[in-house]
Design brief:
By secondary structure, the protein is of the alpha/beta class. The chain is 45% helix and 16% strand. It has 3 domains: 111 residues, 2-Layer Sandwich (Pantoate--beta-alanine Ligase, Chain: A,domain 2); 96 residues, no CATH class; 59 residues. The chain has 10 helices and 9 strands.
């Protein structure tokens, strides 16, 4: 039989109290951890819901901006004539608080300064035919057109890049086109031209936008240098002389230098060209070939930008005017933090 002296009893009781205290601390820690986890999950769910709400609302607003641009382009097509930078579609929508547009609706209740959302909308419509279309590089058989390759070489030179860069772009474009024909059309000749299945696996993807030219092996810096001068459109197109920069105009007209191309840009600012033959009055006598130029366009790039606090959502649409309507041919969206402040969409 074990007997406890008073000193032994105090030690046992002390140990029991210590174990009870330790158990209580463990339980409190577990409860605090579970509570913190539940609070974090609740906060996370609120954040996700808020982000989804902003994304949905931004989609509505930007879709409205697209509809506005389509309406302007449709009305411009009905009026006919040349497309130039003095028309309503070419005027950018400067960044404005969203409540400015909501206040125009008499039935809208969100119009007071203290309750209006801190959201800002801006937008712009660009003539996609103001740049050289890389679709022009290949003929109907998927072969590089030498005269179009010469145009791209001149354009690279005017952009401050090596003219040999054009050869790499054309070769990558050709192989990407062959890969599309070999896979989608089951074209045996295209597969043979690529060098068989091994060549097909090494072929680049066909870019759908200028941003995707990195697929052809170009670095991001080179793509950024080419961005103002080249585009990728669904069909071969001519360059609109009323909207193109001087570098593009000089590149697509044989034997035209940047100085004379600058004269064209200055002249069209005063009076837009109605037909390409009017260029003879600006350039003077010469054996000029204006076959790659036009004064109208069917393709436009519509950009809408919504800034909500420090978040930015930008949506881009490539649209085509066809048969009295404006069709969306391609769309993309960017979202992220606004690192530049309240800068309007470019």
């Amino acid at each position: 039989m074990i007997t406890h002296t008073p000193s032994n009893l105090s030690v046992v009781r002390g140990r029991q109290r210590g174990a009870a205290l330790l158990s209580a601390m463990v339980i409190v820690t577990l409860v605090a951890t579970l509570a913190a986890s539940m609070v974090w999950q609740q906060w996370r769910a609120v954040q996700v819901e808020a982000a989804e709400r902003v994304r949905t609302q931004a989609g509505w607003v930007l879709s409205g901006a697209l509809d506005w641009a389509r309406l302007i382009l449709r009305e411009d097509q009905r009026s006919g004539g040349a497309d130039h930078l003095g028309e309503p579609w070419a005027v950018p929508l400067a960044e404005a608080r969203l409540s400015t547009f909501l206040a125009a609706d008499a039935t809208n209740t969100v119009g007071e300064e203290d309750t209006a959302p801190e959201a800002f909308l801006s937008g712009k419509v660009d003539d996609a035919a103001s740049r050289y279309n890389l679709r022009n590089l290949l003929d109907g058989d998927g072969k590089v057109v030498p005269t179009e390759l010469a145009v791209l070489r001149r354009l690279c030179e005017f952009a401050g890049l090596s003219p040999s860069l054009a050869d790499g772009i054309a070769d990558g474009w050709r192989r990407a086109s062959l890969a599309v024909r070999a896979t989608q059309l089951d074209d045996a000749e295209a597969l043979t031209a690529l060098g068989g299945p091994d060549g097909l696996t090494r072929a680049p993807l066909m870019p759908a936008t200028a941003d995707q030219l990195t697929w052809l092996g170009l670095d991001a810096g080179t793509v950024e240098r080419l961005r103002p001068y080249v585009t990728v459109l669904p069909d071969a197109t001519k360059v609109n002389v009323n909207t193109a920069p001087r570098e593009v105009i000089a590149a697509v007209v044989d034997n035209l230098d940047l100085g004379r191309a600058a004269r064209v840009v200055q002249a069209r600012q005063r009076t837009p060209l109605r037909v390409t033959e009017e260029l003879n009055n600006i350039l003077g006598a010469g054996n000029w070939d204006f076959s790659r130029l036009a004064v109208t366009t069917d393709y436009f790039e519509v950009r809408g930008r919504l800034r909500y606090e420090d978040n930015v959502i930008e949506q881009r649409h490539l649209v085509q005017r066809s048969g009295g309507d404006v069709l969306v041919r391609h769309q993309s969206r960017f979202s992220g933090l606004d690192l530049t402040g309240a800068a309007p969409a470019r």
